Amino acid sequence: MPDSATLEAVNIDQDEGAFSYPEDYKHDAGTGLNEGTLDYISDIKKEADWLREFRKKALKVFNDKPMPTHWASDDLENIIFQNIRYYLAKGGAPTRNWDEVPDDVKETFERLGIPEKERKFLAGVEAQFDSEAAYSNVKEALSKEGVIFVNSTEGLREHPELFRKWFGKVIPTGDNKFSALNSAVFSGGSFIYVPPGVKVKHPLQAYFRINAENFGQFERTLIIVDEGAEVTYMEGCTAPKFETATLHSAVVELVAMKDAKIQYITVQNWSNNVFNLVTKRGLAHENAEIRWIDCNIGSRLTMKYPGVIMKGRKARGEVISIALANDGQHQDTGAKMIHAADETTSNVVAKSISVGTGVSTYRGQVHIPKHLKGCKNNTECDALLINSTSKTDTYPAITVKGNEHSTQHEASVSQVSEDQIFYMKQRGLSEGEAMSLSVNGFVNDLVREFPMEYSVELKRLIDMEMEDSVG
Domains in the chain: how many in total? Predict the structure, then answer.
């Protein structure tokens, strides 16, 4: 059992994520998106010519691609790209010394539990404030083993031979309209490299914080884990509650070499004005394993489908996800599993909760080609409706060719029983507490997959969502 000091460090009141500070930026690209915006970003970052050209080609792809006309696209029409600010930064390189972080940024992250979490159980922390990392630190013992954990700007500049080899290879610029947008204006994010055989025992973690109004955050994360190495990476996301829409459009690329293991954990708590449009994908080589553990709470619209391409024999991919949609929110989430080698295995377990007028959608893709042998997939989709006005949809697309594979799919939709709520209220619980208990029971088997510090945080987030949904 964790001691009381550890629990105190991780038991964060996420409701405080709604605060913001007055804007005071040294670098501001202004509103609008054009080549001048990209030149501004490249000039500030002192980027190489190839990267400046990469951005401009990506902008052309973005402009040429139409807005998606399916899925949750109706709400996407409310994004006015020319009203967004694409780059805001305080200036200066990220510090390794917490005392050197600007006071308002420091106070922001202290209220969210940094660097207390780092001192308790993390091997390294990066804290991003709007467009750039403000703080980045990795334990000295890991550095001595050759582990690299820096922001993406530093990764491109200091480790180009590693970064450029895989940059944009797992998720090409033209994968979708928003991956193209990220490729054009990306800033911040994490770069991690774990050398062969190194097993990082404690998690590495990043926090992504949006502070400014009318802002777009476009971090780019690349994690490369070499042969036989292992790492767990956790990210947390928050934003204050503004009246205007905010855009978060990240790209995350994972590369697991032979026998490597990557576990990528996300707990997001965006405010309900954020459009969260993220592309995440991993490439698993022979006997490698990539696990996405994903919790989506908040945002106006989330469209996120973590994927794994199982490129090597006996590679394994897994997505475990929880999504909670409250009033005025749409959680359009799922998974993509692409089998590209014999004896590969994928597992998808998704649970969604819809509250009030919230809409949750599971959208999955599993593809097993005819020429492969011995592939396995399991897909489970369970939805919980809190009341009669909430909605859920499930769209599993499972394509299996050939007769030497094993697949199974299970889906269920249930509603919180009024009798159950009445029973718990008779035992002294409020209606919000009763619903929270029901929801936590529904997701409890998946919450066990989260590290202790995140399972505590997740339970508190669910408690607050249920309390806010009553009366």
Answer: 1
Q: What is the pLDDT of residue 169?
A: 97
Where in the sequence is the domain holding 244, given as residue range(s)? Answer: 15-424
Flag whether 390 is in a domain: yes
pLDDT of residue 128: 53
295 domain-assigned: yes
- Encoded tokens for 376: 């396995």
In a domain, 155, yes or no: yes
Q: Is 191 exposed, middle or buried (0-12, 13-18, 19+ CB in 10 A)?
A: buried
Q: Which amino acid is at 394?
A: T
- What pTM does this model have? 0.84
Sign of CA dihedral 44, 49, 50, 52: positive
- Of 223, 216, 91, 51, nearest to 148 (Cα)? 223
Which residues lie across from 333 on neighbouring strands? 304, 362
- Residue pointed to by tokens 């139409």: 66
Spatial contact of 436 and 466, defined as CB atoms under 8 Å apart: yes
Give the rounded percent of residues in the chain with a pLDDT score beyond 70.
76
In this structure, is residue 56 part of a structural domain?
A: yes
Judge contact between 185 and 37, C-beta under 8 A: yes
What letter represents residue 99's amino acid? D
Dump pLDDT digits (tens) for 15-37: 444 444 444 556 666 788 999 99
How many beta carbons lie within 10 A of that of residue 425, not counting itself? Answer: 13
